[in-house]
From TrEMBL:
Record organism: Quercus rubra
Protein name from the UniProt record: aminopyrimidine aminohydrolase
Catalytic activity: 4-amino-5-aminomethyl-2-methylpyrimidine + H2O = 4-amino-5-hydroxymethyl-2-methylpyrimidine + NH4(+); N-formyl-4-amino-5-aminomethyl-2-methylpyrimidine + H2O = 4-amino-5-aminomethyl-2-methylpyrimidine + formate
Lineage, top ranks: Eukaryota, Viridiplantae, Streptophyta, Embryophyta, Tracheophyta
Pfam families: TENA_THI-4 (PF03070)
Record GO terms (molecular function): thiaminase activity
Span of domain Thiaminase-2/PQQC: 21-226
GO (cellular component) term, any one: cytosol
EC number: 3.5.99.2
Pathway in which the depicted protein is active: Cofactor biosynthesis; thiamine diphosphate biosynthesis
Amino acid sequence: MEGKKTREEVEKSGMIDTWMKKHRLIYTGATKHPFILSIRDGTVDLEAFKTWLGQDYIFVRAFAPFVATVLIKAWKESDDCSDMEVILSGMASLNDEIAWFKSESTMWGVQLSEVVPQKANQDYCRFLESLMSPDVEYTVAITTFWAIEAVYQASFALCLEDGSKTPAELRETCRRWGNDGFGQYCNSLQKIANRRLGKTPDDVLTKAEVTLLRVLEHEVEFWNMSHGAA
Ligand SMILES: Cc1ncc(CO)c(N)n1
């Protein structure tokens, strides 16, 4: 029998869940990357962690303007005014995050002003920039935003699970994205994305799915900078 769900069936369960099942392998590749697993089992190379720290600071500086464009799209296009509040809370946590990167890097002896973005980071930032265009639909942008946050939430939450051997000096980093509050915030983003995807034309739906896959690929490449393929 045909295993494909009708559009109507998918809308009930939520498009994101459907896509997560369909793209399970690449999602797992992004959320259970060897770098994350090395944090979780305590074998992480601290030089690799410092590389990630410096590179992620550069990424977050590009991510904030992307989120600003999502906020603008929500203001213009959303059918629900609470969307804006969720996005704005995300921007506020990015503000904290940037301050955290600065103090954390001082602690680790990483000079942020001297960090040179690696190719995977440049590619990811360029991809984000392409999504800042007003031509990109709100539905595509909010789905992208959710995916970017959700990968970090799932990855770092894994390092906090019972039985994980995450080194003490990395637990705060893991809590930053792996804490329950951040999990709830990701759920709020997922709910918005599902609501929008449930009533979007097929061509936009396809664009959102393709963009989601690109995010997952970029996340894998991003982790690879610190661990694995050079
Ligand atoms: C590469 C990357 N993806 C996602 C997040 C989540 O904020 C981040 N800080 N960095």
